[in-house]
Amino acid sequence: MEKPTSRRNFVKGVAATAAAFNFQVVPSRVFGANDRITLAGIGISGKGASDISGSIGAGFQVTHLCDVVNSDKYPNVGGNWVKTRQDSPDAKFFEDWREMLETEGDKIDAVTVSTPDHVHAFAASAAMNKGCAVYCQKPLTHGIWEARYLTELAEKTKVVTQMGNQAQANDHMRRVVELVKAGLIGDIVEVHAWTNRPIWPQGIPAWPEKEAVPSHVNWDLWIGPAPFREYSSQIAPFKWRGYWDFGTGALGDMACHIMNMSHWAMDFAAPVSVSAVSADGRGAQSDISPPTWATIEYQFPGKDGKSIKYTWYDGYKDAVFNPEKWALESNIDGGKIRNPNVPPIEITEGLDTTEAKGYGSLIIGTEGKLWFNRSKDTWVVKPGKLMDGFNYPEPSLPRARDQNPHNEFYDAVKANDPALPQSKFAQSGPFTEMVLLGNLAVRLNKKVEWDSKTLSSPNCPEAAKLVKRDYRDGWKLEA
Questions:
Q1: 277, 365, 367: which is closest to 315 by C-alpha?
Q2: 34 confidence band (pLDDT: 50, 70, 90)
Q3: What is the pTM of this model?
Q4: Please, is 428 exposed, middle or buried when counting C-beta atoms within 10 Å of its C-beta (0-12, 13-18, 19+)?
Q5: How far is Cα of residue 49 from the mean position of the Cα atoms in its chain?
Q6: Choosing a second label site near 19 at 20 to 30 A (CA), which of 152, 174, 245, 443?
Q7: Which domains does the chain have, with CATH numbers?
C-alpha cells in the first residue's frame, strides 16, 4: 500500500520536479510567517520539560509528547510529567517514540530528545530518518561510534540538528572563541577544565536490589538498547548517570558544557591519546559505575610538532559510596563531601575554583592565560597588557537570537538552514567523540593512543568493545 503523501514530502517532491525544469521554488522546509512549526518532545520531565518549554517560547507548536512514564496511569506521579502535558493539552501522547515516529512522523517537523544518554542515538537517528529536525541533549550519544554515526547521518539527511549544550548560544562564549582564535593569548599549549559533578552516586560496586516496576513506567522501553537490568528507584528516574550501562558519568554530563569553548577555539581537533587516574589510582572502581573522581589528560596535536595538553577534573577526592544511603559522603567524617578534584593552585594562580557553581576552564597560551566560566559574561586574561592594543577581530560567528539555544534551533528549522546552529551535529558529533574518549582511559586504566579516522586504538584493541558496544536484542543502529 502506498504511503500517503505528507505536506513535507509534497513540498520536497515539488522542489525536485521544479529543479528538473530549472524552475526556482522555495526550498523545502522553509515556512511562511504564519506557519506553525510542529515539535515532538521525547522525554517530558527533568531536562525534557525545560527543552519543551524553551521550544514553545522559541515559537514551536508542540503537537506530540512521548515518555516512558505515563501519567494517565498515575496522575500523582510528580515531577513535570503531568505539568508538561497540561501545558500542551492538545498534544498526542505516546509511551514509545518508535510508534510515534512511525505513525505520526510526517506530521512532525522537529523533535527534542531529552532521554537518558543510552537512548539518544536511537531516538535522534529515527527522527532524522523521518526527515525531522533534531535537538538532542548532551552528551550527544552514549558511545563514541554513535557520535560518528549521527554526524554522518546529519550530513546524509540534511536535516537541521543541534546538541543541547545551552551556553554555546551565549554571545560571550562565541566572542571568546573569536578572540582566542585571533591570538589574544598566543598559541594554545595547555587547557584545564573542572566541574562540581557528580551530584549523584558513583563508585557503585554492585547493582541495587530489584524493586517492583511501577505500573506507570514502561521499564522495558526505558532500558531500550542497553543490557537489561531490574528496575530500581536507585537507577531511575535520576541516578542513572552513575551507571556505565545508561550514563557517561560526570565527564559525559558536564564536559559538553565546560570543555566546549576551548575545544571550539581549537577547531574541534581530535586527540591523539588520552590517559587517566581515578578514585584510588587504579582506574574505575567497578565495571558498573564511574569512579568517585577522575583526572583525565588528553593530548592534541599543536603547532610546529608540539602537543597541547588538555586536562579534565571531576569528582571529589574525599568521596566514598555509602550503600546504606545509596549516596556519596566524605571519607573523613561521613558528612558532606567537600574536597573537589580541581587543578593545582600553581596552575590556577589562586583563582577560586569553587566560585560560579564550582566549574570553569583555563586556557594557557604562549603569551598568557585566559580564565573562562560559561555562567559569567566576563573573563580574566593575564597578563592584562595583552588586551592593550590588541587588534580585536570583527565578529565571525553568527549570534543566536536572544542568546537562546531553542531560538537558534527554531530559526534554523524555519530557514531550513542546517549550518546555522553552532552546536549542529557536524560540530557536536566530533566534540562528543573527544569527550567520551576520556571514559575509555578511565575504564581501561591505561594510556589509549587514538586514531580518530578509524575510531580505533593502535595500542589498545580491547577499547573496540567500548567504542561500539553490543545492543540488546531487537535494537540496532544501521551502519
A1: 277
A2: low
A3: 0.92
A4: buried
A5: 16
A6: 152
A7: 9-167 (3.40.50.720), 169-397+424-467 (3.30.360.10)
